Amino acid sequence: MENNGEEQLFKAGETIYEEGAESDCAYLILEGKIDILRSKDGAFYELGTLEAGSLFGEAGVLQNDVRSTTVRAHTDARLLIIPGETFRRTFSDPLAKHVVTAMAKRLRDRYVPERELIQNSEIKAVYKKKPKTAMQTGDPVVEGVTPLVLEKLVAPVRILNFPFFIGNSRAPGEMARESAQSLMFPLPSAPDLEPQHFEFVKHGKEVWVRDLGTKHGTVVNGEIASKFGKQVEIKLTPGENIVGTGGMNSKVTFLITL
After folding, report:
1. Mean pLDDT by 10 residues, the chain (258 residues)
2. Dist. CA 146–CA 250, nearest whole Å
3. Cα 72–chain centre separation
4. Cis amide linkage into residue 94, ω under 30° from 0
5. CB-based burial label for 196 (10 Å; 0-12, 13-18, 19+)
6. What is the pTM of this model?
7. For residue 67, which of 111, 14, 23 has the smallest C-alpha distance?
8. What DSSP string runs through 195-215?
9. Which residues have C-beta within 8 Å of that of residue 10, sequence separation ≥ 6?
């Protein structure tokens, strides 16, 4: 342990580091939970919660950048603090370092997307429209927004076959599994995502998201699709769309790009 870092105990509510601080170390959660926060107009808004076994703070270390978020202990938390130089030396192989740095940047970007944070920790997406790229071909591309999804989906998934559904295998597993007709996430502790939660369907050239009869519905760009509501499917718009499962404040949220 002494060669890799030192342990430190943080009390519930204690700040571990603040947004804008120097990224001089990475952290591994040994026990407890931590909250990832972003500040706006003097208030803090929660972006996610990480549990034991999770690594955080690594993006700023690998990119030699300042902290992009504030992190606080959600419960009493025992952390392993890994000095920046020690952490960087772990990836002495250039290819390994490139891959991990790219993944860390993607995770960092998703924690702090270009969006406005509003009261009661609700998040309203206001992504800026981007010029059409090679990735934006009209086929939906699925990426993660919330930490729970990002941990399981390390690369974007382009959907070529319809219908195509997203669901929860609720089985132990490290990564999401893609097939020709589905994308399954191993999230046994995430009730927000049901075994078959929503699917992508095509009407002509338009792509729609259809809720598959779930208890709390599917949220598409702030609108709810549900068999208990006014609509069961919602059309995706060209560019970026935010799709969440289980309600407005879901911890299972996706970015869908057309």
Report:
1. 74 92 91 85 74 84 82 94 83 57 55 40 34 55 86 85 95 86 92 94 95 94 91 93 85 90
2. 9
3. 18
4. no
5. middle
6. 0.52
7. 23
8. TT-EEEEEETTEEEEEE-S-S
9. 16, 32, 34, 73, 76, 77, 78, 79
